[in-house]
Design brief:
seven-stranded mixed sheet, Peroxiredoxin_C, Glutaredoxin, redox-active center
Length: 210
């Protein structure tokens, strides 16, 4: 798997559904550079089982992300029409009505491929026929992108393993803390804890207190 941390987030321009109802052409992350942080997360499929639990979990924390100047963006390999249909379906019927952050349609699978979260791949068999191994859908990848468009954190879960949204928030807090204070964030750091000066003396002082 590609490690994108420290690198420019791969660019894309694709169809998306925003605010739960509006189709947007040529949706891109470039609009946020210099202005907002981005949490870009991939999920496997619309109309499934683990995926709506994640999408609602992110929606429930949307105000917390916005308070931190973070734009949430979801991506799957379904079409924008599939996204829209799922967004119109009530939660009681298995839908995701009420989700308002953008959901991007990676219909040609290039976004998932460029972020290296595409499960399965294409190959040519002995008869020179194009084949696919596995389902060409996205793993549960998550990327924290800073205001310069640089990936600062990434995590990828296998298909049945749902994510912890509070951990995504913690990583935003950690990044913003280091940017503001110039200190590192030690193991199990959270926003109410002190940072760590990245020197031998700083480490010794921190460990002596904990």
């Amino acid at each position: 798997m590609a490690v994108l941390v420290g690198k420019k987030a791969p660019k894309f321009s694709a169809q998306a559904v925003v605010n739960g109802v509006e189709f947007v052409e040529n949706y891109s992350l470039e609009q946020f550079e210099g202005n907002k942080y981005v949490i870009l997360f991939f999920y496997p499929k619309d109309f499934t089982f683990v995926c709506p639990t994640e999408l609602f979990a992110f929606q429930e924390k949307l105000a917390e992300f916005e308070k931190r100047n973070v734009q949430l963006v979801a991506v799957s390999t379904d079409t924008e029409q599939s996204h829209w249909g799922w967004l119109q379906m009530p939660k009681s019927q298995g839908g995701i009505q009420g989700v308002t952050y953008p959901i991007v349609a990676d219909t040609n699978k290039t976004i998932s491929k460029n972020y290296d979260v595409l499960a399965g791949d294409y190959y040519y068999d002995d008869n020179d026929q194009l084949q696919a191994s596995g389902e060409l859908i996205a793993y549960r990848g998550l990327f924290l992108i800073d205001k310069d468009g640089i990936v600062r954190h990434q995590v990828v879960n296998d298909l049945p393993l749902g994510r912890n949204v509070d951990e995504a928030l913690r990583m935003v807090d950690a990044l913003q803390f280091t940017e503001e204070h110039g200190e590192a964030c030690p193991a199990n750091w959270s926003s109410e804890k002190e940072g760590l000066k990245a020197t031998h003396e700083g480490v010794a002082d921190y460990l002596s207190k904990h």
